Amino acid sequence: MKESLQKYAVLGWPVEHSISPQMQNAAFQACGINAEYERIATPPEQLVEVVERLRRQKYSGWNVTVPHKENILPLLDNLETNAKLAGSVNTVIRSANQLTGFSTDGYGLEKALHEAFNTDIKDSSLVFIGAGGATRATAMHFALQGVKRLTIINRTLEKAQSLCDLINTSVNRPVATPYPINRPDKWQAALLSADVIIQGTSLGLKPADPLPLSVEMLEAKMCIYDMIYKKTPFLQQAEQKDCRIADGHGMLLHQGARSFELWTGLDAPVEEMRKVLKQII
Ligand code: ATR
To answer: For residues 9 and 40, is the Cβ–Cβ distance under 8 A?
Structure first.
């Protein structure tokens, strides 16, 4: 007898641009799992209702993207440690009608950095530019994994400060240091000695955006990772300075692969998923 159809989804607003359905449906197919993954456009005011509907309709799991990664926390029954500490969820499992939230973004970024630059997190000093949702979702994972040093540079110092405080308290060591972006004299040394510089602001999404950091600060051979899913002007200019660069697609792939593994308990067919991603790009 054929197994009954398992339902999965991604909740976001907007969500039409999400390529998770193609990636996850290819993974289910490659593993012979009878499952369907769909996009559900979820305006913020409908999040509670949509989550309850998915629970009622016995969805097996779902991804959560912007702007719901933080707001979904109180709607869940359990949280994995990283998600709880970071205050960010991108993956939900429904099991025995209990909803458990995970954050696979940090894992995805860790894998992506390893693929792009051979980075070993435990030995690394990382600089994050930005202290918004993307940094919040990933920096805690690195701290929990035993990263050597995190430097978080942001336009608004208070936001970087409170994120660093949260991280340092959570891991009980002073691993993260915040700086205001307009004081390069304070963070230049950390930038020059960083194993990877991670661009985590929203700058680069719109054509008129300023650069998140003056490329004057960059030197040849530096490793620059942009969490945005395209070759941003920042990456283009970094490449012209002979930096090593990578965009957010690796992170997208590996966070999705980890979600798949959490839902199914199987190894994700990463190469199948990567193929789909490449075709779409
Ligand atoms: P998200 O959760 O989508 O990342 P966010 O929490 O608003 O959105 O964070 C956006 C990040 O981009 C923040 O680090 C933000 O800096 P502030 O904390 O100072 O707002 C950064 N950012 C956005 N626009 C910026 C700009 N014009 N100049 C510098 N930083 C900017």
So the answer is: yes
The answer to whether the peptide bond before residue 14 is cis (omega within 30 degrees of 0) is yes
Separation in Å, CA 129 to CA 58, 114, 150, 265: 40, 19, 11, 34
Cis amide bond preceding 180, omega within 30: no
Cβ of 130 less than 6 Å from ligand 1: yes
pTM of the model: 0.97
With a 6 A CB cut-off, is 104 part of the ligand 1 pocket?
A: no
The reply to whether 122 belongs to the active site is no
Report pLDDT for 9.
98
Per-residue model confidence as pLDDT tens digits over 222-246: 999 999 999 999 999 999 999 999 9
End-to-end CA distance of the chain: 38
Q: What residues are paired with 92 via a beta bridge?
A: 62, 101
Task: Note every long-range contact of 185-190, with CB atoms under 8 Å and residues 24 or more positions apart, other chains counting.
Answer: 187/127, 187/151, 187/153, 188/217, 190/125, 190/127, 190/149, 190/151
